[in-house]
Amino acid sequence: MNLRSCLCAPLLLAFSLPAQEGSAQDPEKQTGPTPQQEVENLRAEKLRLQREIHYAQERVADAKNLLRSKLTRAEQSFRSIEAGVSAASMPAAARQPRRVARVATEEELRQQPEGTMLIVEGRAIAQGFFDKVMDYMREHSAGDDAVRAQRVAFDLIRTEAMAAAFYESEGEARFGDVLGQIQQGKSVAEVAKETGSVPGADPEGRVVVTRNSQYGPFFEQVAFTTEPGTDASPFRNANGYVLMHVDGIEKGATPEQDTAICHVAQVNYADVAEMQRAQLKVNTGQIEVIARDQAALDMLPALFKAAPTAPSLVADRRGMLAQQAKEMEQRIQQLQASGGDQAEITALKQKLEAVKKAMEATPEGVDDGLKTRSIEQEHEKKGEK
């Protein structure tokens, strides 16, 4: 190797290294997006998301309008009927006959979860659920057990019937959003300011729950059995979904005077008009209620059971008249045996005769309007005149 080559080699190496480094970096600079390109990409992505959100909002609006059109009924009109012109009829729910509850078939029970006590519009009410509320009521409310059972049954039936009517509703989607806010740390009081609460609550959802509460047995049971300072598990009532925080229990002079201080957020199934139409069907007995057996059927409120027949009412009237006649005859015998006032005896005989004539005027199987209250009172009025 000559001297010239030795001297030139370092210089050539010094010039070639920067060139190689530059050539290695150029491809990256050419293929990667520039800051301006990244901004443009983000803008395009933002526009795409906005279009998707707009499309989703339109779908929700269309679904809402469709649901409203299905549930909307002609409003009741009280205008006079003109010749040749049909007036708007009463709401459909008010025209429909009452539906009488019945005992389930074996096939219907097989289709329901084990332990089902009642089936309301296809939704099951478990015997254990009913018993849990009944146990609370027996411990904290006075009165007849049959009356308590009817009150609990109606509360649970109404809740399940409304849940069936709004199986897929906007309220369900709203409740999912609200539940997410609670899980992220929002308080029930904060949620209640946005969603609303139960009747009687303040703007933050604070409400005082008493025994024999207007909100129903199950609502009351949740309020008094939840640990103070904690949130109850979300549950349903007749209007929709309920979130409850129990602040504390205040003891009264007696257990019946205890109160539960709570904050409650209510997420309704739908708007007031739609819910009122559904509640009208429940309150007029126009829902399907199927009992597991005859015992469960007999326990139901009278609203869901067959009405007594007219002959039984007539029998009650005739029995009452017969009882009045028997009591008068016994009184007359006592007065006669003891030498009582003759004027009183005469008056009783006149009343007895009037009762017997009323019995003769009420043949079996004919209801004369049950005007019995006052056979004696009418006779007394005639005597006064």
Structure description:
The N and C termini lie far apart (158 Å). The relative contact order is 0.09. The chain folds into three domains: 113 residues, no CATH class; 99 residues, no CATH class; 75 residues. It is α+β, with helices and mostly antiparallel strands. Strand 2 and strand 3 form a beta hairpin. The chain has 14 helices and nine strands. Strands 4, 5, 6, 7 and 8 form a five-stranded antiparallel sheet that branches. Strands 1-9-2-3 form a four-stranded mixed sheet. 56% of the residues lie in helices and 12% in strands. It is elongated, with a radius of gyration of 39 Å. About 13% of the residues have low confidence. Helix 5 packs across helix 6, helix 12 runs antiparallel to helix 13 and helix 13 packs across helix 14.
Give the structure's gist in a few sentences:
The protein has about 375 residues and is α+β, with helices and mostly antiparallel strands. It contains 14 helices and nine strands.
Q: Structural class of the helices, strands and pairings?
A: alpha+beta
The quaternary structure here is single chain
Distance between the termini: 158 Å
What average pLDDT do the residues reach? Answer: 80
Biggest sheet layout: 5 strands, antiparallel
Number of domains: 3
Number of helices: 14
Low-confidence stretches: 6-25, 73-90, 366-376
Write down the secondary-structure element order.
Answer: HHHEHEEHHHHEHEEEEHEHHHH
Strand content bin: 5-15%
* Cα gyration radius (Å): 39 Å
Give the overall shape, derived from the CA principal axes: elongated
The percent range for helix content is: 55-70%
